[in-house]
Amino acid sequence: MAEPEVKEPEVPAVPEAPEVKQESIEESEFKPGVGVDVGTCNIVVARQKKDGTFVNKFHRNMLYPLNVSDESEELLERGDYLYVKVDNKYYVVGEDALRLVRAIGSGEVVRPMKDGILNPSLKSSSELLFYIIKAVVGKPMSEKEPLRFSLPADPIDVEKMNNLFHNMLLNKFFTQMGYNPKPVNEAMCICYDSNPIMKSEDEGDVPLSGIVCSCGGGMWNIALSYKGIGLLEFSCTKSGDYLDELVSQMTGVSVSKVIKTKEKNLDLEIVPVTDNVLQALSIYYDEMIDRMVHYINTEFQDKNSEMDGKIEVVVAGGTSMANGFCRRLAEAIEGSEFPFEIYGVRHAKDPFHAVSQGACIRAQADYEKSKSKKS
Amino acid sequence: MGDYIAGKSDRSGNSVTTIEAIASVDVNAIADAVAKALFLKSKAIGDPNRNSSGDYFDAPEKKKEFDDSSTMKRMADAMIVESGKNESNFKDLGNVKENKAEPDVDKTVDLLKDLDD
How many residue pairs from chains A and B have C-beta atoms closer than 8 A? Predict the structure, then answer.
């Protein structure tokens, strides 16, 4: 009996992921991989040129709503303010929102994000935020270009608040834009950008190992890294915005003016006794730093055995940019029962862009990984 | 410390020592502390029908925390609404700042490409 002919079953073709167009990558002046820091105060996007230069685009994450009317239209035109119109409202965006509040002399800016996540009290916050992000991030240079967006760790001071929803929302949005997005811990971005070194007797200089702190507007984030792996991460919502609000309450000065004073005049090395706002800022900065050190001590106390050497602390983020911040942090660490041996506290080279650049480095590594898998 | 009076004798003439404690003692606080201590003990080891968490052995096992990730995903999908009705007077946004990269960036990329999330 002749054996029946065995016919190989037809394997249905697996739909392939869209190809990355090599031509567009080769033609571009940038390396593939984008880093996005979606912060409460700012959106920063980083790409790296092939010659090594990082190009950061920065936009202040602020809005000022105005009802649609002939007067407001005239005001916007006269002042050359940038705006988005949604339904029956104009939203003046970014630096212009702050400029307008100062020009009018009343009202407050609103934020599409609050405490590190989307602001639930602003009705159109997601639509506005995405409109703005699109305009800052731009299109991918190729389909499914790797993109890393910064994500805060779950806060230790707020119950029932986690970043899962925020993560899913941004993931979905960047996917729709044509990117291949992944989150990356905000503090770890500083590690990738600034490369803290652990000095070990056995291993010598160990890269990407130390404590990294990102002090943003809505949150500060802290991570303990060993060779680029985040051992433990946490965040706290009592950061820059919290300081501004407290100082405003205590001094009776509007939040916008407090922000202006903080950004232009605050020097933590020299605080004039005659200036109430600067005095109050200085006092609340001390409290914030003490709180950071307190939580590092409690959260990391059982991790000291994993760091076999002296480590450094690297700090970044807009709230850390006041002169004297690192000195005050170093003093607070020295006066506490810190669980690690510290040999230095330093700022990232560019504290304002360290998170976006670190995210960009992580995205480049994703691209390299996918390239080596294909080959 | 309370004051004490010593060296008195009773009706039969036997010498006795009387110690009279005159001190302000917060009886309620002591009672509270004792009650607390007893309660903790009985919850942990006192009742043979209970486990170390204080739950009865035959009680239905507590369910794991409810997984709401699919709801979150659906919410995220629902939130991304682009009405297309938005108008703006800009095409792109953002001020540009360039930074020279640190010399060890390429080494970092090499190290990270071998790490999983």
Answer: 141
